[in-house]
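Example 3.2
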Amino acid sequence: MSNNETIHQKFLKITTPRERLPESGLYLITMGVFSVVLLGLCALAIGLGSISFNKSLQQNSLNLAGLAAMEAFVATQPTSGDIYLQKATAARDRAKAILETNQLKGVIGTLEYKIGLHGAPDDDGEIVFGKWYEKSAPPDTCEPPCFFPNPSVADALTTETANAIQINVNTHTSPLFIPFGSILGTSSKEIASSAVAVVAPRCVALLLDVSGSVAGDTHSMAVEVGVPADAVNLPAEFAGNQLVILAPEKPGVFAVRTSAIDGNCAAMTSIDELMWCNTRAARALNGPVDPEVHYQSDYIVHETSSALSIGDVYVDAFNAPAYGYFGPEPYTSIFHALNAGVRLLAAQASPSDLAMMLIFSGSEIDRIPRTGTLTNEFDLLAQLTNLDNIGRKTLNLDRSITVSPKVTPNAVSEGWFFIPGNTDSENGTNLVYGIQAAIEQLSDTDNCPATAKRVIILASDGLANCSVDINNTTINCDPENQSWYPRYLESRAALLGPVLQKLRQEEITFTVLLAGSAVGPNFLNIKNPNFSGNISSNDPEYYLSQEQAIALGYGGVLQPPSKQFFDSKSYVDGVVSVDSQAVFDGAADGFSNYVFRDPNSVLGELAFQTGGVFCPFLPLDVASHYTNDGAESDGSPATLKLQHRTENAPQTVAIEYIPQAEMAAKCVVQSIGADPFALRYDGD
């Protein structure tokens, strides 16, 4: 370039295409290489993303399938043939249905999930049945927490059980198509997943109070000392006096000892005989059925265990479901509820579920198992809590009588009932003793795994007239100045103090079935502040449910007045009384015009603070007060119309139009947990 070149000429020379080519070509090559790499990375991301997405989708589906399979295994209850095979097949089929409904995206064809039973795997996997051990396991099995398989389905006994299912699946028959799979070296891939579903362990203590009020709603025991007489063999406090029935009370007792009845009602020598002689002789089958009127012809002779000192008893075996009478109350409803809970555990057949029953009054009467631990012999507990096994007389709609077969052992043969004339410690109510004994068993990890759900279910009227020291060693059922109210106050303080503290410390759920008209079971109708509708809607959400009340800080006696969910006042003839001692004594003695409601607030506090259920036994109102006159077209329970509920007033009739026993059974099932199924790990 000469010195005479102009600037313009220099510019043209520099920017000629021939001289720009090397730089431009390098740029294009770089862009081309980068584009190929970028496309490869995108393809890789898409391929890997497809694999990850579908693996996650399959794992979620498998988790659902495992839970459904475990539920199907438990729910299937064949009565003949190879029971284990039928249960296993039902579980496998349920898992397949869940998996096939949730198809993966991009599989080649349709996934059929060919899954074989344990011991005979199919193309797409296997479902294995076995035991899940949380804290400890038998020798030569596995190291907890772990899953240990049963023998193969073909080799297992027909009575084999399982509390866990492991499902191992892959997409062998229909592998996943991988977009741009050539970059990954394959155009398809099998996805493998595994899941274990278990029946979560539960430890349940059923506490049954069989003190004098256990049948008090239908069988009146109200007596008083009358004109002095030469009666003998009476308890010391009645010696030298003749007992008389207080009119207009209707006499009746669930059971009396046959040895105390000599047939001479002109000279009654025991409380048993007093009650028996004042009971009408024969029931007219075409007459009315009054739950409070009883007849000697309603009773049967029933033997009791030779280990007891009771001997044979006359027991009231009459019931008439067709006419609305199901038997002595609340005794019958309590047993129905406890039986429902036991049958739930038995139906789910989980070896990790354990239970105990403690029968008590002023002191311990019996417990199952008698070894002082927990048991999974739910069939025995179901037999003991089925009142039909005592040989019940049923009045049918056509006025005929049928008698159920007597099956022993049963509640009567084992002495699970009130006997008139026993000592105070035998006939009293010692709530603290019963609850503390249950806590002791459930908190022992040798009996109940630390990871188990632990539940105490108490059936009682809450009229505690016995107390016990915190070590459960010294029981006091003695009255002071002829009143048991001081014992109630001692029991109340223990329940709200060390007992509640221990329940919370051990994370034990406490549920109470509060029964008996003497305590006026109730809860308050508190308006739901989050409900925007009006009372004419008849929507039950207008008032707070128990769960909502707990969430908003409502409770029992330990809460401020503005947060009370129960009426705890005392009443005489429907009028509030400030003389709590007199009302307690009158209610405890069986006088129907005395109502002592404090146990609602005390036991309700324990239930609310431990996540349990407060279940008051409430009678039905008239059918017309319920939606659709008590009969909903979809089969669901009719609910009480809101116009028959009063805001901030105690609710004393049932909210749902179902029998009291059925409502109690719902409470027990809710407390135990109708859905105990859980995942223990999600596989790889």
